[in-house]
Write a structure and sequence with these properties.
Blueprint lengths: L19 E2 L2 E6 L2 E4 L10 E3 L26 E4 L7 E4 L30 H96 L1
Antiparallel strand pairs: 1-2, 2-3, 3-4, 5-6
Length: 216
């Protein structure tokens, strides 16, 4: 590669990012890490390290952690009759030590668990932290409610319809078998009546012969 003036220049390539994803090995290419094939929870998962744009990052010794990634599968619900026919929903940590983290305040509150309202500043900052905690809880409740209504309840309706269709099909099959048995019963009844009629005619023949002889 050369500069616009045609003067050659040397490009020094950087190093590929390296690290683990959720404690499992990963392949680094540039700023992207991809979970290796065969990983239990991160196979094919790709994450990208994005440093602050326009800000130089000081070099760190090999093995120094610059970030942490955790994978949560959440709650898993089996919604069908087939294997792996399931859906998942994740819910964040709702403990007081994890709610409203990162809210800017002058009192140094790190989360909802750190509130101290013994001063005017602390009380004002506590309101900000509590408001953020309420927003986080409301957002989580909304997500769970949407999952319940749009996924679980709609799937339940589909399963009920499938169950009704299955019951109707079973009833149709049973009715068809009943018709077959009724036809067989009618056939046997006709054959029995025919046999009885033939037997009655056979018994009547000697009596008819005797009457003819008596009349002569």
């Amino acid at each position: 590669m050369s500069r616009p003036t045609g003067d050659p220049s040397i490009i020094k390539n950087g190093s590929d990012v390296s690290g683990l994803i959720n404690g499992e090995s990963a392949i680094g290419r540039g700023q992207e890490l991809t979970g290796r094939r065969g990983n239990a929870t991160t196979e094919g998962l790709t994450v990208r390290w994005k440093g602050a744009q326009g800000v130089a990052i000081a070099p760190k010794p090999n093995g120094t952690a610059v970030g942490k990634i955790s994978i949560r599968e959440g709650f898993r619900f089996q919604v069908g009759a087939n294997p792996d026919q399931a859906v998942s929903v994740a819910m964040g940590n709702m403990s007081s030590s994890q709610l409203a983290r990162g809210v800017k305040n002058e009192s140094g509150f790190q989360s909802l668990a750190d509130l101290d309202v013994r001063s005017t500043t602390g009380a004002n900052d506590a309101i900000r932290v509590v408001d953020e905690a309420i927003n986080q809880v409301a957002t989580t409740r909304g997500s769970l409610g949407a999952f319940q209504r749009n996924t679980l309840e709609s799937n339940l309706t589909s399963l009920r319809i499938a169950s009704e269709n299955m019951t109707s099909a079973e009833s149709t099959i049973r009715d068809a078998d009943m018709a077959k048995e009724l036809a067989t019963f009618t056939r046997n009844q006709i054959m029995t009546q025919s046999a009885m009629a033939q037997l009655a005619q056979a018994n009547a023949m000697p009596q008819n012969v005797l009457r003819l002889l008596a009349n002569q």
